[in-house]
């Protein structure tokens, strides 16, 4: 019987599929072919592993078609489809920002007594999250202002100083409209920043003297979450856990106010405690504690005593935090407002929106002459409303 490893004695030439005997000489003409059978697959495997290792070292992340583990079918990648947009959401949201009396620079830019302004940082804040802005000029004719309110999907009250007179009255009317829209079933958010929070405190409590003095001008601070607070559904819901933790230990937010409300006073004021739940508190320079973030029960209304817009878009005050974490805070807060605005049922006429957008105005650089703002939009009226 012929050997499996030897040559066929009945043939003068070796069979084409025979393998040389282990006892064959190294100089045998078939030896190189034998080693090629072993080495070529091994070299191919090693080359592939080295390429993968190099990719992991340089990028730390491999795309599915780079892993070589069967996790993705390369033949299907070019045929992947994009998910359809949610028809219940509006992907062209517009935010109305209420202008504030003055020029934002104590008259250095425009001393017209009818002037009002919006700091450009609020506009950029909204735009960074995927929305546009319509200015709600506080002293323009009411019929025009409230026509504009019908073109937006949410409202932002800015920081500032004016708490009385026409400005207070207009803020109160807009707040009432926001509540009415939500009561009618339109998810219509309101962000109130610093002065905006103070105005809501006065309006809801029906007490213009409810605010307390605090020393928190030009101060970076942390945010202390109240005990057992549930952030689900709040502005903090999508913050990464490590960033939530840093909010409580690092000075990632900017405070710039002289008034506010203590947790005790808010809780002991029935109108306020029924409307707001406290999310965070902060401490001023004299270790006095005030409410720094609050959210309405049952309404998409969020109030900040701090300034989420400044971290990324203002440079005039030395204590504004500009770290990676601080910028991430700004982005998450902006994103939440615009996610809420996309849920609005309002679908305004395109041309009316285009005619009213803030792009119809030009910002003024005031970093040299202002009081902390880098740019402002200034609006002037020929005659103040009575």
Distance between the termini: 119 Å
Q: What is the average per-residue confidence, as pLDDT, rounded to a whole number?
A: 86
- CATH H-tier superfamily of the largest domain: Class I glutamine amidotransferase (GATase) domain
Number of helices: 13
Biased composition (Low complexity): 20-31
Biased composition (Polar residues): 1-19
Family: Belongs to the peptidase C26 family.
Protein name: folate gamma-glutamyl hydrolase
How would you characterize the overall build of this protein?
With 386 residues, this protein is an alpha/beta fold. It has 2 domains: 28-60; 94-379, Rossmann fold. The chain is 35% helix and 18% strand. The chain has 13 helices and 14 strands. The strands form 3 sheets. The protein has an 8-stranded mixed beta sheet, with helices on both faces. Strand 10 and strand 11 form a beta hairpin. The termini are far apart.
What labels would you give this structure?
alpha/beta, 2 domains, eight-stranded mixed β-sheet, 18% strand, disordered N terminus, gamma-glutamyl-peptidase activity, Pept_C26_g-glut_hydrolase
Q: Could you write a compact summary of the structure shown?
A:
The protein is an alpha/beta fold and 386 residues long.
């Amino acid at each position: 019987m012929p050997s499996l490893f030897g040559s066929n004695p009945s043939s003068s030439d070796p069979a084409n599929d025979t393998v040389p005997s282990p006892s064959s000489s190294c100089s045998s003409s078939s030896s190189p072919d034998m080693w090629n059978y072993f080495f070529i697959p091994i070299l191919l495997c090693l080359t592939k592993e080295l390429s993968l290792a190099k990719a992991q070292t340089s990028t730390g992340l491999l795309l599915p078609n780079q892993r070589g583990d069967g996790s993705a079918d390369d033949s299907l990648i070019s045929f992947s489809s994009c998910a359809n947009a949610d028809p219940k959401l509006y992907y062209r949201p517009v935010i109305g920002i209420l202008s504030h009396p003055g020029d934002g620079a104590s008259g250095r830019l425009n001393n017209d007594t009818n002037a009002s302004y919006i700091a450009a940082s609020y506009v950029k804040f909204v735009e960074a999250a995927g929305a546009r802005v319509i200015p709600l000029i506080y002293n323009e004719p009411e019929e025009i202002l409230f026509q504009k309110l019908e073109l937006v999907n949410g409202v932002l009250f800015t920081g500032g100083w004016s708490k009385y007179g026409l400005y207070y009255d207009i803020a109160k009317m807009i707040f009432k409209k926001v509540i009415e829209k939500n009561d009618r079933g339109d998810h219509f958010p309101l962000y109130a920043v610093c002065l905006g929070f103070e105005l809501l405190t006065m309006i809801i409590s029906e007490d213009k003297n409810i605010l307390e003095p605090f020393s928190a001008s030009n101060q970076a601070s942390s945010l202390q979450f109240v005990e057992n607070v549930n952030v689900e559904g709040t502005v903090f819901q999508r913050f990464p856990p490590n960033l939530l933790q840093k909010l409580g230990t690092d000075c990632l937010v900017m405070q710039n106010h002289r008034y506010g409300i203590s947790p005790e006073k808010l809780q002991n004021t029935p109108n306020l405690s029924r409307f707001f739940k406290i999310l965070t508190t902060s401490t001023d320079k004299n270790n006095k504690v005030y409410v720094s973030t609050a959210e309405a029960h049952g309404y998409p209304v969020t109030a900040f005593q701090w300034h989420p817009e400044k971290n990324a878009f203002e440079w005039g005050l030395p204590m504004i935090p500009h770290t990676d974490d601080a910028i991430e805070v700004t982005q998450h807060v902006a994103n939440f407002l615009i996610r809420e605005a996309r849920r609005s049922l309002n679908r305004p006429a395109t041309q009316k929106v285009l005619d009213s957008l803030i792009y119809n105005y030009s910002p003024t650089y005031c970093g040299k002459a202002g009081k902390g703002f880098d740019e402002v939009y200034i609006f002037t009226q020929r005659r103040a409303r009575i």
